[in-house]
Structure to design on (222 residues):
């Protein structure tokens, strides 16, 4: 669990609100300066990682982000569709800092993603989430063979998802580099959209759990 959320609710809300306000301030400055100097708008690309970090706890507390594991969240999840995303830079700071860059972080990330899928399966089995819910995401981390084995359908990412990856490119570069243990630019141009229904995810529960146990054993041996 992200240690930030182990604090009292009052403290979480106070700190989340302060981060939210601090996160808005650079945007206001860029917009104001941009009126007279349009080149300032280019700074918005640098601002996005700042906003992602600053807004995360507020979005979590208000339900915009629904976490299924410390590093797997659903954006604006509802009973019709769950749009899965990896944890933000805020989550990296509080969750992943105790792991070593490279193999250890990469395996731990995969385990957190799988823990999130197992959590989703349990919620669907317990009728907290409908079986016909559509679960989607964008992947350049998992191998296509692994995703197919777990029942996911793989298609070319839409323009919307590609733009979203491009906007978050700075965060993606450093997160991917940390997981690889070296400078590594993610191939977002090869990113694929993955999708599966709730009932099909349940049908592939065994494959998800077996992959998780394999990673768990592999991690403990190293």
């Amino acid at each position: 669990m992200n240690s930030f959320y182990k604090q009292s609710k009052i403290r979480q809300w106070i700190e989340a609100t302060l981060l939210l306000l601090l996160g808005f301030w650079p945007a206001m400055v860029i917009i104001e300066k941009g009126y007279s100097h349009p080149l300032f708008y280019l700074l918005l690309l640098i601002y996005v990682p700042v906003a992602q970090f600053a807004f995360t706890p507020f979005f979590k507390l208000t339900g915009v982000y629904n976490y299924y594991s410390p590093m797997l969240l659903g954006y604006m999840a509802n009973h019709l569709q769950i749009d899965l995303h990896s944890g933000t830079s805020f989550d990296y700071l509080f969750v992943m800092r105790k792991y070593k860059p490279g193999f250890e972080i990469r395996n731990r990330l995969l385990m957190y993603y799988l823990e999130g899928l197992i959590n989703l399966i349990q919620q669907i089995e317990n009728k907290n989430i409908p079986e016909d819910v559509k679960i989607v995401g964008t992947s350049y981390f998992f191998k296509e063979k692994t995703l197919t084995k777990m029942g996911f359908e793989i298609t070319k990412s839409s323009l919307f998802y590609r733009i979203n990856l491009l906007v978050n490119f700075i965060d993606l570069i450093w997160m991917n580099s940390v997981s690889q243990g070296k400078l590594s630019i993610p191939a977002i141009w090869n990113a694929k959209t993955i999708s599966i229904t709730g009932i099909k995810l349940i049908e592939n529960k065994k494959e998800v759990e077996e992959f998780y146990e394999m990673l768990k054993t592999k991690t403990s041996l190293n």
User: Anything to note?
Assistant: The first helix runs from residue 9 to 36. The mean pLDDT is 90. The first strand starts at residue 65 and ends at 69.
